[in-house]
Design goal:
The chain is of the alpha/beta class and 136 residues long. Helices cover 41% and strands 13% of the residues. It has a domain of 78 residues: D-Maltodextrin-Binding Protein, domain 2 (3-Layer(aba) Sandwich), CATH 3.40.190. The longest helix has 16 residues.
Length: 136
C-alpha cells in the first residue's frame, strides 16, 4: 500500500509519479526509469502504514564537498547563517521546523528544479527533498 500525497500529481499513478523525476532530471527513458522505481515500490509494498507520511527517507542536496558539514536538521538549526529549502507541502519543512530551524530560515520552494537552482545560485545552503527524487 503506497499513499500518494506531498508534491505528487493526483492524476498520475504511483509508478508514474516515482518515474517522473529521473525522466525529467536525468533524461531517462520511461522503461529505464521504471525498473528502479518498481524495486523501490516493491520495498514499500512490504510495509503497511496506519497513518503514513511517506514511504521513503529525506535527503540533502548540498554544494560539492558539503563545505558547511551539514549532516542533519540539527546541524542546520545550530548554524544561524544556514538557509534550507524545502518542497512545498512536503514533510521536509515540518522536520526542519521540529528540529529548531527558525521559520525565516526555511524557504519553501515550489518544485525540485527550483530548489536545485536556488542551491546553485546560493539563495539556500541546503535543499531537503525526498530521497526518491535523487537516487533513481
Amino acid at each position: 500500500m503506497v499513499f500518494q500525497h506531498f508534491n505528487l500529481f493526483p492524476h498520475k499513478c504511483v509508478l508514474d509519479n516515482v518515474t517522473l523525476t529521473p525522466m525529467l532530471t536525468k533524461g531517462m527513458a520511461r522503461p529505464a526509469a521504471q525498473k528502479p522505481a518498481m524495486e523501490l515500490l516493491d520495498m514499500c509494498a512490504a510495509v503497511a502504514y496506519s497513518e503514513p507520511a511517506l514511504c521513503d527517507a529525506e535527503a540533502f542536496a548540498l554544494k560539492k564537498g558539503n563545505p558547511l558539514k551539514l549532516m542533519s536538521y540539527k546541524d542546520i538549526a545550530d548554524n544561524a547563517d544556514v538557509k534550507i529549502g524545502a518542497p512545498d507541502g512536503g514533510t521536509e519543512e515540518k522536520l526542519a521546523l521540529e528540529a529548531g530551524v527558525p521559520r525565516d530560515r526555511v524557504i519553501v520552494v515550489p518544485d525540485g528544479q527550483s530548489g536545485l537552482k536556488m542551491l546553485q545560485d546560493g539563495r539556500i545552503d541546503v535543499y531537503s527533498l525526498p530521497v526518491l527524487s535523487i537516487t533513481i
